[in-house]
Amino acid sequence: MPETDILTLQDVSVRFPRRQDAVLTDVSVRLAPGEQLIVVGASGSGKSTLLQTITGVIPHSVVASLGGSVHLGRTFTADTSVVELSRLVGVVAQDPSSSVCLPDVEQELALPLENRCIDPALISARIDRALDAVQARMLRHRSTAQLSGGEGQRIALAATLIAEPAVLLLDEPTSMLDAAGLGAVRRAIRSAVDTYRPAVVLVEHRIDEFAGTGGIAGLPPRALVLGEAGTVIADGPTVDVLAQHGPSLNRNGCWLPLETELLAVTGCSGGLGEPAVRAGIRSLGEPVRALGRRQNFGRNVLTATDLTIDRGGGARVRAPSGTATPVLAGVSLTLRGGEIVAVLGGNGAGKTSLLLTLAGLSRPSAGTVTGARPGMIFQNAEHQFVEHTVRAEIRHGLTLDDDELRAILQRHRLTHLAEQSPFRLSGGEKRRLSVAAMLAHDRPVLLADEPTFGLDRRDTIATLAALGRAADAGCSILFSSHDLRTVATLADRVIVLADRTVIADGPVFEVLRLNEVLNRAGLVLPPLIRHLLEEFSSDAQIRRVLGQLDAAVTTGEGTK
pTM (2 decimals)? Predict the structure, then answer.
């Protein structure tokens, strides 16, 4: 093995019990110190499993059959405990709160050094270096409970890198962040990697947003593509891999940089800055057709009046003055049958607290909620699982016959997982199950907290279609999301939260055109949505373009 390789996977295959097919098959990868790799693939292609084999969680903690070999430098992971491997590998996961152990930032960063018996005289300087690397020196004396999502993720990154791991794994590190938090974490990762020079493996669905204004150049310079069978489809320079495999990746439902997606659909390169690409987008909006969603909705099915909501259903956030400040105050809203409403706002704006209150799972400190008892899809899918198999989870509380169950499993691409434990699924598979299980119930109101979180493009489109069918059948849907493209595709109306209250409530495209509202709420329009709002005065044309782009995934058809 060359001494320059810090990570080597040789012919790695992984099989789980009760699954007919391998999740990974003959995967070989080598990474040198400082080399950066992005792993691309549809949901279920084995991205999370790949990371688990590098950390040693497979085979030491997760029951699975591991073939081939994984080395970290000269360390053979199959013969080394996860504790020992943690000295070589650092992991930054989706949810920063899952890795926080201590009440303040300074203690959180000191802990990994103390665990390694670092000289106490050196710890303070290393904390400063780690915080400088993630551009967060000002957070050193902050309580971890007071960190925003973006701040928490930067501290999680600093706490991972302070021990100077040889390999850094980034498992969708921006998936739960608003635009401001995502930008801060993106910059922090680049700065920290430059400082510590670990080998980096990135798994990320929000590729376009992670890349930022740099587009493809803003991604790791090397890309590995995994196919649905868990095999390596491509491995090489990111710009070349995306140029060669972009159309097939788009058809297979992978998230792609916008420039690559538009090339796959229009046949024109260069992104939104090129006249030919803009002309291709314009052609997608013609001819004008109906919106496809009703504008006359049913009766009021849920009404909230003058709600005041405390975080956690009782605990209050302390303002600098020492007075107790509610998460939300003076919130009133009405949901109508068949209407799809998106609730928007930055991290900490109160979206989840509002949904929990409307669901009856948290009591408001003031105000009332009247109407039908909603069903709810939780942001963390595992929080709603109660059964031991996928099949039983969907059937829970229902009397479905075999044909009905088979149709639900097929609709949500869960047939091959029917006998699996819900807790052993990948992140995207868990999300598909949580949506499928709740949609199986006939509820007049459905609340969904980030229903497309963790999904690839294909499953995002399928989930939006399933929610649309539920609304067409008369269900009222209220969902939260950081993904404004999803909101523009699905929602009839948006409610925007900021400054602890509702600052806007109206038709989706009308509100998205209000720059003052977007700025106040910290919302940033994706370049595609901004272009469509500027290009088309007709909401129907915007809907048609978004639908055509989605159709290129579900049918493989473009304008080329």
Answer: 0.85
